[in-house]
Amino acid sequence: MELSASAYAWIKALHVIGVMAWMAGLFYLPRLFVYHADAEPGSDKSETFKVMERRLMRAIMNPAMVASVVFGLVLMAASGPAIWQTLWFPVKAAAVVGMLVVHVFLGKWRRAFAEDRNAHSGRFFRVVNEVPTVLMIVIVVMVVVQPG
Prior knowledge:
The chain is mainly α. The chain contains five helices and no strands.
């Protein structure tokens, strides 16, 4: 797939915007879970967290994830098959898959909270909160440094 320089720049900008919004949600949702885990199920506090978590996931994280993936796939296609011969791109792609897995688990845990059946502690979610950070560091280093 060949794109004009202008189209490539716009798609890259939209990809970066999507990634930034998605990452904001991936950082914030587990933090909400930390506090929600300490709230009494059925309490006003718990019900407020449910609303916040649902809106964050549905209105920001899901659309941003879709935008990130779609625009990323367009950029990948525009780069051609040679990109897979590098070291950095398959590592980055694996980290992106890891980020998608985190997103799926966050959705599963959000539904558990919504149904008052959370089985994890605040400490568990503090650890989970670090996973997107580690994956983000790998992705940024691979894209910017492009080792190998």
